[in-house]
């Protein structure tokens, strides 16, 4: 087993199996990978919303790689062990008109800056958000010729945005090309399920990954082996908004909207800040899909993130 280092630059923002590999490794090797933030280093602390709107969006998802794994061939499986992550003490989230899960409700652009204090951030007062860094994008080169934008994920991995991929986890990907040609980027210090406002806490992120090849094993798409490291943000001790409907997307939007309303009415957030908090800390899950045609979606935020509150006090009952 060898240890390698790979600097962030030069990055790439497309999947293209003709890209020359920046590093050659053997199965079992570890690589310390430096990744710029998702903007490709264009966003910086103190940047204004107006400046943010002028960035070059063709550089979004600036990825580090590709990495060639000796012996990898189509039909193999590549295992990626996430050994360690390290953020740089800052991050950002944004709202962009026309993007996001609630784009009809939130039309005014916003850039929000986060200061990351070790394992949490208090930048969005009064919330204290746990920091659980992971790469939003990890993938191998696609099977097709050509250059493909990184936004849609696929069986090759890519823009998965699965927050369970923090340190201690494993990702398994099918190999489609000789060498596999792995790339990663889009570091998040934290992210809620759905990444509803379009961002998690975007940040530069250094990661240590270990790669293993499993020869001649069929895999239809990515599999994640999770870690207990994400458990402090996933307990049942949470505020949960429940919505039921026949359209899953609309039901999920309704649950997200009600969580925003709850944060505004009971904790005093602005609507915009409540939306951003949901994007970096909310769990959005299918609670039941068996009672067709009606499905249930739950939106949850851990109680540890917010100051203690009672939704309805005894005085409210007495007044009623």
Task: Explain this structure.
This protein is mainly β. 13% of the residues lie in helices and 34% in strands. The protein is built from four helices and 20 strands. The strands form six sheets. It has a six-stranded mixed sheet, with no helix packed on it. The longest helix has 20 residues.
What is the average of the pLDDT values?
Answer: 93
What portion of the residues fall into strands of 2 or more residues?
A: 25-35%
CA radius of gyration is 20 Å
Strand order of the largest sheet: 1-4-16-6-14-17
Order of helices and strands: EEEEHEEEEEEEEEEEEEEHHEEH
The percent range for helix content is: 10-25%
Count of distinct strands: 20
Distance between the termini: 70 Å
The major β-sheet equals:
6 strands, mixed
General form = globular
User: Structural class of the helices, strands and pairings?
Assistant: mainly beta
How many separate helices?
4
Low-confidence stretches: 316-320
Topology diagram in text:
Elements: E1 3-6, E2 14-15, E3 23-25, E4 30-35, H1 49-53, E5 63-69, E6 77-87, E7 90-95, E8 110-115, E9 120-121, E10 129-130, E11 134-140, E12 148-149, E13 157-159, E14 170-174, E15 182-188, E16 205-214, E17 223-225, E18 238-245, H2 248-267, H3 271-281, E19 283-288, E20 295-302, H4 314-319
Parallel strand pairs: 1-4, 3-5
Antiparallel strand pairs: 2-12, 4-16, 5-15, 6-14, 6-16, 7-8, 9-10, 11-13, 11-15, 14-17, 18-20, 19-20
Helix pairs in contact: 2-3
């Amino acid at each position: 087993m060898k240890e390698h280092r790979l600097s962030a630059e030069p990055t790439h923002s497309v999947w293209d199996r003709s890209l020359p590999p920046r590093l050659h490794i053997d199965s079992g090797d570890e690589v310390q990978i430096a990744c710029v933030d998702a903007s490709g280093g264009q966003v910086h602390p103190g940047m204004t919303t107006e400046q943010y709107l002028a960035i070059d969006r063709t550089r979004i998802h600036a990825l580090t790689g590709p990495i060639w794994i000796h012996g990898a061939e189509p039909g193999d499986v590549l295992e990626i062990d996430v050994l360690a992550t390290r953020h740089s003490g800052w991050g950002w989230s944004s709202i962009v008109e026309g993007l996001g899960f609630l784009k009809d409700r939130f039309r005014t652009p916003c850039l929000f800056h986060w200061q990351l204090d070790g394992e949490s951030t208090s930048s969005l007062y009064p919330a204290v958000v746990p920091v659980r860094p992971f790469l939003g994008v990890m993938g191998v080169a696609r099977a097709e010729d050509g250059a493909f934008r990184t936004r849609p994920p696929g069986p090759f991995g890519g823009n998965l945005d699965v927050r369970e991929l923090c340190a201690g986890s494993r990702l398994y990907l099918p190999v489609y090309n000789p060498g596999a040609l792995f790339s990663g980027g889009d570091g998040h210090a934290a992210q809620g399920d759905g990444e509803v406002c379009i961002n998690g806490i975007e940040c530069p992120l250094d990661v240590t990954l270990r790669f293993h090849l499993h020869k001649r094993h069929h895999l239809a798409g990515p599999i994640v082996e999770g870690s207990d490291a994400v458990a402090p943000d996933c307990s049942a001790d949470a505020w949960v908004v429940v919505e039921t409907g026949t359209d899953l997307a609309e039901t999920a939007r309704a649950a997200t909207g009600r969580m925003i309303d709850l944060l505004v009415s009971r904790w005093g957030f602005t609507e915009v800040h409540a939306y951003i908090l949901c994007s970096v800390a909310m769990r959005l899950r299918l609670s039941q899909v068996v009672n067709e045609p009606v499905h249930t979606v739950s939106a949850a935020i851990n109680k540890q993130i917010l100051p203690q509150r009672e939704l309805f006090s005894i005085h409210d009952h007495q007044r009623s």
